[in-house]
Write a structure and sequence with these properties.
The complex is a heterodimer. Chain A has twelve helices and no strands. By secondary structure, chain A is mostly helical. Chain A has a domain of 188 residues: MetI-like fold (Orthogonal Bundle), CATH 1.10.3720. In chain A, helix 9 packs antiparallel against helix 12. The two termini of chain A are 31 Å apart. Chain B is mainly α. Chain B folds into two domains: 69 residues, no CATH class; 209 residues, MetI-like fold (Orthogonal Bundle), CATH 1.10.3720.10. Chain B is flat and about 75 Å long. The termini of chain B are far apart. Classes of the chains: A mainly alpha, B mainly alpha. At the A-B interface, helix 1, helix 3, helix 4, helix 5 and helix 6 of A face helix 2, helix 4, helix 5, helix 6 and helix 7 of B.
Chain lengths: 283, 294
């Protein structure tokens, strides 16, 4: 039983952790929003204005926003699609699975930039993947997978790096699916696909949604991976924001892009959590 | 009754046993398949990096050769002699322990309250704790740098530690909160009945009981600090270079693959070793505890 007596001292105890985050994160979010309207500006006089928001209308900004949205959505779907079968397979223990589990977790501990470099080596124009495919006679010309227009290189890196991260979340929610439920479904004549679509996927939906949210935010707000493996144009929105601020010294316009990034992240979280509620309500 | 006819003997094996065998064989094949796929999936990129880091500069590795013709440790010597990697390593590995220690100190009281008290507004506090992970890194970095500049923390070691602490806090707080939740109240009551004061309770009850979670949290905070890029890039460079920012500079305008390969290997080897050492603390419940319930 928990002790339910709450004294003001408990709020004070929250301060080091929660207070620290509010102080630094809150102030930077506040600054982003305020600067996007021209307040607290470092360049010249501060006054309320909507002029900075015209930056959205620029074709480059629009392209960047759509490109980052595309990367976020495709990376989150791709990672979950790749991870779910592995998680399903690892659900039950068995010979060799401990080893397999540690092997899979390796990219979790490989920093994102290193992961980008590792994959860049594979998929570059004369990388081993292209070379092998050509030696096997499957390709006549090397495929452009790196810095390609669509951004496949970025998606591959995101999947490679984040598979174990999503795996941990999916494994945790698969662990809550009871064997009885699966057995009961099988006894009632459900086939493999029916068990997958009627039992496993609906019951792990919260985990799937959480991993998709986190993946979306990672890929949408990504700076280093896209700048290394992404197309020359458009750049990711995070890159555009950084360049706007530090290269062009247009901090107020960068703030607008920052607000767009934060807003999109919050919107996605809200949409997914609505979706999660719908899934829960449907049962 | 002895069975003499061999065909009867094979029939005597019941069908479900045969089926079970077939299923078991299928599972073994599936395991082998997944292990092979993973070895290729994880192994090839690492192997390629190792090969690239050993290319002899006098015999460049280029198009028709599937493997480098001459191997030499030249890139390693070059990187360690002529680049700032040693300084970057020092910075990385001295910021991380401070960041871990600070985030532990900040987390402990907060996690205690979140884990053991039904404080009003708990849901909101739990969400705030996750914000550093949820908020896109570059936005936070860019505008936090403005705050840091105002506070004269930009381009300082202490500022870097504070920034890394901020990124490590969510993992630490969430993992410790779960650990505090699992302590049975009986144990605390017993300690109190035997006359334990606050200090004794912390030392003899709370700390030992949250230790597994504490280790998991420390590992997450440590690796987060080692691989933190956005904040370091904006707040630290050019005064401070960590391994991620130095790798980024090697992969940008002056892209020299052999050097980048060396830095990549230097950066990931300690992490992978750590992964295998701490494997048993890394049960998925810790991560799901820190992120699963949003």
């Amino acid at each position: 039983m928990k002790d339910d007596s709450i004294t003001p001292i408990h709020y004070v105890m929250l301060l080091p952790g929660v207070g620290f985050i509010i102080l630094f994160l809150g102030s930077s979010i506040f600054l982003t929003v305020a600067q996007s309207f021209g307040l607290f500006s470092i360049t010249g006089h501060s006054r309320f204005t909507l002029d900075n928001w015209k930056v959205i209308a620029a074709q480059e900004s629009l392209d960047s926003v759509f490109f980052s949205l595309k990367m976020g959505i495709l990376s989150s779907i791709g990672t979950v699609l790749f991870t779910f079968p592995v998680a399903l397979f690892l659900r039950k223990g068995g010979a060799g699975k401990g080893f397999l589990g540690s092997l899979i977790k390796i990219p979790l501990f490989i920093p994102a930039l290193v992961a980008a470099f590792l994959i860049v080596n594979l998929i570059s124009y004369h990388g081993i993947v292209n070379e092998l495919l050509m030696k096997l006679g499957l390709l006549k010309e090397p495929l452009r997978m790196l810095n390609d227009k669509f951004g496949w290189g970025v998606i591959v890196i995101q999947i490679w790096k984040n598979l174990p991260f999503v795996l941990l979340i999916l494994m945790a929610s698969l662990a809550s699916v009871r064997d009885d439920t699966v057995d009961a479904a099988r006894n009632l004549g459900a086939g493999t696909w029916q068990v997958l679509f009627k039992i496993y996927i609906p019951l792990t939906m919260p985990g799937i949604l959480v991993s998709m949210i986190l993946m979306f935010i990672k890929a949408f707000g990504d700076f280093p991976i896209t700048s290394i493996a992404g197309p020359p144009y458009p750049s990711s929105i995070a890159f555009r924001m950084h360049a706007t601020a530090t290269l062009y010294q247009e901090w107020d316009q960068a703030a607008v892009l920052g607000v767009i990034i934060i807003g999109s992240a919050l919107f996605v979280i809200w949409a997914y959590s609505r979706l999660a509620d719908l899934v829960k309500g449907g049962e | 009754m002895a069975i003499t006819n061999p065909s009867v003997a094979t029939l005597a094996v019941p069908l479900h046993v045969l089926q079970a065998r077939r299923i078991r064989r299928f599972y073994i094949m599936l395991t082998v398949f997944f292990v092979v796929v993973q070895l290729v999936w994880i192994g090839t990129p690492i192997l390629m990096a190792v090969l690239w880091s050993l290319v002899n500069p006098d015999y460049p590795w280029s198009f028709p050769n599937l493997f480098p013709t001459h191997l030499a440790p030249a890139p390693w010597i070059y990187v360690f002699k002529y680049t700032n990697i040693i300084r970057a390593l020092k910075t990385s590995y001295s910021v991380a322990p401070f960041a871990v220690a600070l985030s532990f100190l900040f987390s402990l009281p907060t996690a205690y309250v979140l884990g053991r008290k039904n404080i009003p507004g708990k849901k909101i506090f739990n969400l705030i704790v996750l914000l550093p992970i949820i908020m896109p890194g570059m936005v936070v970095a860019l505008f936090l740098s403005r705050v840091f500049t105002a506070l004269h923390l930009s381009q300082t070691f202490f500022g870097l530690v504070l920034a890394h602490t901020l990124m490590g806090l969510p993992y630490m707080i969430r993992v410790l909160t779960t650990s505090f939740q699992t302590i049975p109240q009986d144990v605390i009551d017993a300690a109190e009945n035997l006359g334990a004061g606050t200090f004794v309770k912390i030392r003899d009850v709370f700390l030992p009981m949250v230790r597994p979670g504490l280790l998991a949290g420390m590992i997450f905070a440590f690796t987060t600090s080692i691989e933190e890029f956005n904040l370091t890039f904006v707040i630290g460079t050019p005064t401070f270079e960590t391994i991620p920012t130095i790798l980024y500079s090697f992969m940008g305008y002056n892209f020299i693959r052999t050097n980048a390969a060396v830095v990549a290997l230097v950066m990931m080897t300690p992490n992978i070793i750590m992964l295998f050492i701490v494997e048993r603390f890394l049960k998925s419940d810790y991560l799901s505890a820190s992120l699963g319930k949003m």
